[in-house]
Amino acid sequence: MKELDKFGRAPKSRMSFGYLGSSQVDIATTAKHWDNLLGAFYNRTVDISNMDMANVLRSCVGLLETAESIEASEIIRQSIDIALLRQGQTLWRSIASQPIPWANLGDRIHSPTIFRDAVIHVVGKWNSLTDEQRSVLYPSVRNLCERKHIELQLKMQAIEVRIVGHYPAFLQRRPSENIYRATYANDVYMWMAVCFYRQWYCQQSMEGRTRAAKDGGAAFFRAVGAGGRSYLTTQDQARFHLYFPMSSKAMSILEKNLDVLKADIRPLVADLLIDNSQLDTAEYGQLPHLTCCDVKPLEMTWSTPEASEDPSGDEEELTDSDAEHETDDDGSEHILFSPQAKVDQDGENGIGTGTGSLADVDSSRSDEEIEEEMEENEEDQEGDGEDDDEEKVFL
Q1: What is the mean pLDDT of residues 197-216?
Q2: Where is this region: Disordered (predicted)?
Q3: Other C-beta atoms lying within 10 Å of the C-beta of residue 173
Q4: What average pLDDT does the structure give for the chain?
Q5: Which of 56-65, 126-135, 256-265, 348-357 is the least confident region?
Q6: What is the average per-residue pLDDT within 227-255?
Q7: Which of 133, 123, 135, 129 is nearest to 299 (CA)?
Q8: How many Cβ atoms sit within 10 Å of the Cβ of residue 322?
Q9: From residue 210, how far is each of 152, 219, 265 by CA, in Å?
Q10: 70 is a domain residue
Q11: CA distance linking residue 274 with residue 209, whole number of Å
Q12: Fewest 10 Å CB contacts: which of 21, 37, 70, 220?
């Protein structure tokens, strides 16, 4: 943007273009950005064809910077968003692999779909990201990702507490029942399964394979959600039986009780296995991180409501003088009425200014007496104003 003089001319004698003197590649790239920008003014689709997604990302950033140089970012944002969304699964695969630059771009072009998907993957990969990688995020985007990561950690912590404290329903007893030693002895294999399961779970947690893992516990919670032979396999149980030998029949009963316990626990981790990303995992396979994060429309960085201003802040206090000269939108002045009638200080009945009613006047007095008394009241008011501050009453 150039400052113009009163004749509409730039201060410099000639306009300087940043790409002059650059390589032919830079000139062609800059020319393409201007071509896409000017075409967007006429609803022409941004041309990003025949490019891989890495070049598409760089091209979109360059195009946006070109638009910002003439304060036309509002014009180009929607065009970039539409052009990117037409890439389909190619776009979502690129976002899943490189979510940080896409999150920044989604913030700049105000694209809810791209920004939301990128934040989901950033939060899922948060434990594996370095401080240097996180510093690339825009401050507002990073604050959102950190808040979502903390929310996810608290959610996983609550779920782990429920898992460790879970008991199958049929193990529970009521105080009103006749409870004997045999009451619990009949379920001894399930109690052994609960003990075995909790020992295994605590070991996994202490070894950092749950929410503290680099994958955010994705592999662990997905195994728990799958149940069956996805974890605590026959080999794991065989190592347990090295310290607690059993007969073949007893080992089979214990294994079946473990399966029942796993089936009870599966629903507890269902919320962590929700896939909110746009990537088609059925075609491209499961991602190595969780994608259960959810970003609401009001949580978008550009739609966050501004803090309300303090009404008792630095606003200029209105005075009676300001109110007297205040005008409506149509130019007419406000007419303010005093809320109270002015009464004669001697306590005698008289006609006061303001909202006094003629009905309060003694009807036995003549008009001349009334006029004389009104003139006396006005003289008294003028005299009082010389000593005391004048009370402003607008009629």
Answers
A1: 94
A2: 303-395
A3: 11
A4: 79
A5: 348-357
A6: 92
A7: 123
A8: 10
A9: 13, 8, 15
A10: no
A11: 20
A12: 21
Cα–Cα distance for residue pair 171/187, rounded to 1 Å = 7
Tens of pLDDT along 44-94? Answer: 888 877 678 888 888 898 899 999 888 888 889 988 998 899 889 999 999
**Backbone φ and ψ of 333, nearest 5°:** -80, 150
* Residue 73, phi then psi, degrees to nearest 5: -65, -30
* Parent domain of 129: 88-172+183-299
Whether the CB-CB separation of 114 and 98 falls below 8 Å is answered with no
- Residue 112 is assigned to a structural domain of this protein: yes
Are 171 and 190 contacting, i.e. CB atoms less than 8 angstroms apart?
A: yes
Residue 274 token pair: 């929700």
User: What are the structure tokens assigned to 10, written together?
Assistant: 């730039």
- Mean pLDDT value of segment 374-394: 51
**Which of 218, 221, 211 shows the shortest CA–CA distance to 288?**
218
Residue 367: pLDDT above 50?
yes
What residues contact 27, with CB distance under 8 A and at least 6 apart? 19
Q: How far is CA 218 from CA 163, 213, 291, 301, in A?
A: 16, 8, 9, 27
Please answer whether residues 42 and 48 qualify as being in contact, where contact means their C-beta atoms are separated by less than 8 angstroms: no
Q: Report the alpha-carbon distance of residue 276 to residue 290 in Å, rounded.
A: 9
Q: Which residues does 207 contact at the CB level (< 8 Å), separation at least 6?
A: none
**Contact assessment for residue 117 and residue 278, using Cβ atoms and an 8 Å cutoff:** yes
CA distance 209 to 186: 34
Q: Which residue has tokens 């045999």?
A: 182
Query: At residue 265, what is the residue type?
Result: I
* E-only strand ranges, 121-210: none
Model pLDDT for residues 278-328, shown as the tens digit of each residue: 999 989 989 999 999 999 999 999 986 543 334 344 444 444 444 444 444
Structure tokens at 334: 């406000």
Determine the Cα–Cα distance for residues 253 and 16; give it in Å rounded to an integer.
84
- Residue 157 lies inside a defined structural domain of this protein: yes
pLDDT band for 392, please (50, 70, 90 cuts): very low
Question: Concatenated DSSP letters for 346-384?
Answer: T----PPSSS--GGGS-TTS-HHHHHHHHHHHHHHHHHH
Bigger pLDDT: 208 vs 324:
208
Domain count for the chain: 1
